[in-house]
């Protein structure tokens, strides 16, 4: 493995992690906003909302949609970026 390939591998991993982090944070934000909007009669403290956010994986409010988006994010982060980089 030459240094160019190694650097490309590192950059690809970093972009994949960034895409995945952004994706996860997006769904957490949407979930918390929906949770608060669907329960307007309550005033939630930040500690309670943090707990709800932590339980999101167990609650699965978006069903399989989040998992499908994770697959797309992983695919585009690891497969498409090297294809575009090769053409540069």
General description of the model:
- The structure is a single chain.
- This protein is mainly α and 88 residues long.
- The protein has one domain (3-86).
- Helices cover 81% and strands 0% of the residues.
- The protein is built from 4 helices and no strands.
- Helix 1 (3-38) packs antiparallel against helix 4.
- The protein starts with a helix and ends with a helix.
- Residues 79-88 have low confidence and may be disordered.
In short:
With 88 residues, the chain is mainly α. The protein has one domain (3-86). Helix content is 81%, strand content 0%.
Secondary structure: elements and pairs:
Blueprint lengths: L2 H36 L7 H9 L1 H4 L5 H22 L2
Helix pairs in contact: 1-4
| Number of domain units | 1
Distance, first to last CA: 19 Å
**Radius of gyration computed on alpha carbons:** 18 Å
Biggest beta-sheet profile: none
Low-pLDDT segments: 79-88
Number of strands: 0
- Going by helix content, strand content and strand pairing, the class is mainly alpha
Helix-strand string: HHHH
Oligomer: single chain
**What is the beta-strand fraction?**
under 5%
